[in-house]
Write a structure and sequence with these properties.
Elements: H1 5-9, H2 26-40, H3 53-80, H4 87-111, H5 115-143, H6 150-160, H7 176-180, H8 190-211, H9 222-238, H10 242-258, H11 261-284, H12 286-297, H13 303-318, H14 330-336, H15 345-354, H16 362-398, H17 404-427, H18 437-458
Length: 459
């Protein structure tokens, strides 16, 4: 059953507008059915699924803190602004998000009860990536050159594509790919797709290369993972987003750090050929030159991103303890944004008329929304998990066990977790939807496996 989890987690098309947060997508309901099936069939007992008392206390305190600060922001904006905070909607979304995080942890605790279930999940990750490329992404690339597959791409877009409710211009021709001529998978836009690939899938490939581990149990060569990583980098170029270029750079940097000897020489030679090819294309191909200039070397239109990020951190510095509350940033964004960054068409034609300033930095969002009362404990918790994961990796290789396959499996999971955190930490400087099902699923999976492995270590 765990083989189905990754493809299901990608199905985040909004079902009903107006429903709070993650509750308006398919995965949560399918996962809930799977969870209750596990319990009903007695494959797992509810009393065996535990979350520490500290975690419960933290979630209660966090919810209360958010309710208080959203209510405070509601009073401030109602008194001083024409951009009021939607009190009940914001509190509802926050409670749903926090509850979903707890549910996903319980769900993964119930689903990953054996190494077979873990292996099946990891295999699904690679298979899902390949199928996504073949049926969705490569046709989207083709449609950037020719309309031959527009019908298929638009059909997939209408059925599966998650879309921004307030920006229909992205999908005017039937789908994002046929309208913007950029690759987006099922995501609402290219940068969100690139972030998903970088945070969820590339760590699986890098960990396989690093540990020379095959999730299919030695059925494919490790060069298969090199080829899939190279294909992924090429695809990210067609996303035509700064996020994609940044992910490619990070992947190459990590790859050079984790391979050794002849393998590093092989990687460096391949990168040399790719660099020569890129330089040649840049010089000889005007279209490629425009692409690189627009999204990397001479990127323009960054004023609103910079202004929004500055505004978020000013917001945090003004309300450092509790933040301003989940979803309550619009009034404060306009209040704190530097005037020098607002002299552009997008601000006056989109942001100002809608009285809405989109959040374009996840780190800024976290600190502005939640304040130190939530962020400091969360960061300490993550740091402890990283320390535990590194310790477990060392313990796995030091302990004398007959089943080397188990050691290889858990080492693979730990390294994928660490790489994923690196990508998340860097990409969180930009914007993506961090509450998507695949993020909650994979990070819950990693934490559950680390916790179970830590219990084994304690004996």
């Amino acid at each position: 059953m765990t083989f189905l989890l990754v493809p299901i987690s990608l199905l985040n098309k909004v079902l009903v507008s107006g429903v709070p947060g993650i509750m308006n997508t398919v995965p949560l309901y399918l996962f809930a059915i799977m969870f209750f099936w596990q319990v009903r069939s007695k494959k797992v007992r509810l009393e065996d699924l535990t979350v520490s008392k500290k975690a419960y206390v933290f979630f209660v305190v966090a919810c209360l803190a958010q309710i208080v600060t959203v209510f405070r922001s509601f009073i401030i904006t109602t008194t001083n602004s024409t951009i009021p905070v939607n009190l009940f909607s914001n509190i509802g979304n926050m409670l749903v998000t926090f509850s979903a995080i707890i549910f996903y942890y319980y769900f993964c605790d119930a689903m990953f009860t054996s190494e077979k279930a873990i292996s099946s999940f990891l295999q699904s990750g690679i298979v899902t990536l390949i199928v996504l490329y073949m049926l969705v992404v490569i046709p989207q690339i083709i449609t950037t050159f020719t309309p031959a597959l527009d019908g298929w791409v638009n059909f997939v877009g209408r059925v599966f594509e998650e879309r921004h409710p307030g920006n229909t211009l992205f999908y005017l021709n039937g789908s994002y790919a046929t309208t913007e001529h950029r690759v987006n998978g099922f995501a609402p836009e290219a940068s969100f797709f690139a972030a998903m690939i970088g945070i969820i899938f590339i760590p699986l490939l890098l960990s396989a290369i690093h540990n020379r581990y095959d999730v299919f149990k030695k059925r494919v060569s490790r060069y298969f993972y090199y080829a899939l990583l190279l294909l992924t980098m090429i695809i990210l170029m067609f996303a035509r987003t700064t996020t994609g270029f940044l992910i490619v750079f990070l992947a190459i940097l990590i790859l050079l750090l984790i391979v050794h000897g002849r393998e590093r020489l092989f990687v460096m030679i391949m990168l040399g050929f790719i660099l020569i090819l890129v330089i040649g294309l840049y010089i000889a191909n005007p279209t490629f030159q425009t692409l690189v200039n627009s999204y990397l070397l001479k990127k323009q239109g960054t004023d609103n991103r910079m202004g929004g990020t500055i505004s978020l951190f000013k917001m945090f510095l003004s309300y450092p303890i509790l933040g301003v509350g989940s979803g309550a940033t619009d009034y404060f964004m306009f209040k704190y944004v530097p005037i020098s960054t607002t002299n552009n068409l997008e601000f006056y034609s989109n942001f100002l008329p809608a009285q809405s300033y989109p959040v374009q930095s996840i780190w800024g969002e976290f600190f502005a929304y939640f304040g130190v009362i939530i962020m400091i404990p969360v960061l300490i918790y993550i740091a402890k998990k990283v320390k535990i994961a590194i310790g477990l990796r060392k313990w796995l290789h030091e302990k004398n066990v007959a089943d080397h396959q188990s050691v290889a499996l858990y080492t693979y999971v730990i390294d994928a977790f660490l790489y994923s955190l690196i990508f998340f930490a860097v990409l969180a400087c930009f914007s993506f939807s961090w509450t998507e099902s695949y993020y909650l699923l994979f990070y819950s999976f990693y934490i559950v496996i680390i916790n179970k492995l830590a219990l084994q270590e304690k004996g």
